[in-house]
Design a protein that fits this description.
Length: 171
């Protein structure tokens, strides 16, 4: 998704365009480790590239999978805040480039919706793989901040007094 025209040749693209009526955009760099350019390339530019692909043919619906992390980690002057579906920008700050890039990508999707794109946005929490099979959903468990936090709670038996709710979306 990071390449112009999604990196596919024109003949194959023409065949795809004949049949496609829905694009579900779930691709993202979710590693939480790296510089901003890495996240911008996949999460922001990749989203723009997919939207441009969708806009080439009328009648394609675009479903964007965002994240609750777009709400940021802190809003100056507030200890707690509620984020609703129609909220996007409300002064939030970001602790990670992942969160910031997903926020910026969602802004692009919303701008295109305002300009006529048939699209919906879904915001999920932490997507967690099934624990009862051998399917490997999370490929970056060693560097994933949320997995590491859960692992440390399990190993130490302590959450260090952090009173936090978790939003889990089992896969």
């Amino acid at each position: 998704i990071t390449k112009e025209d999604l990196g596919i040749d024109s003949d194959f693209k023409e065949k795809i365009m004949e049949k496609v009526y829905l694009v579900i955009h779930t691709a993202a760099d979710v590693s939480h480790v790296g510089d901003y350019a890495k996240y911008h390339k996949t999460n922001v530019l990749g989203t723009e590239n997919l939207i441009n692909f969708v806009k080439e043919k009328n009648g394609i619906r675009f479903c964007y999978v965002s994240t609750l992390s777009m709400s940021g980690s802190y809003v100056p002057g507030f200890k707690k805040y509620i984020v609703r579906e129609n909220n996007l920008e409300f002064g939030q700050t970001f602790e990670s480039f992942y969160d910031q890039s997903k926020f910026e990508a969602e802004k692009i999707v919303r701008k295109n919706i305002e300009n006529g794109l048939d699209a919906v946005i879904f915001r999920f929490g932490n997507l967690i793989g099934a624990s009862d099979n051998n399917y490997t959903f999370q490929r970056n468990k060693e560097t994933n901040a949320f997995y590491n936090y859960l692992r440390s709670i399990i190993k130490t038996g302590s959450n260090w007094g952090i009173n936090a709710d978790f939003n889990l979306s089992p896969i």
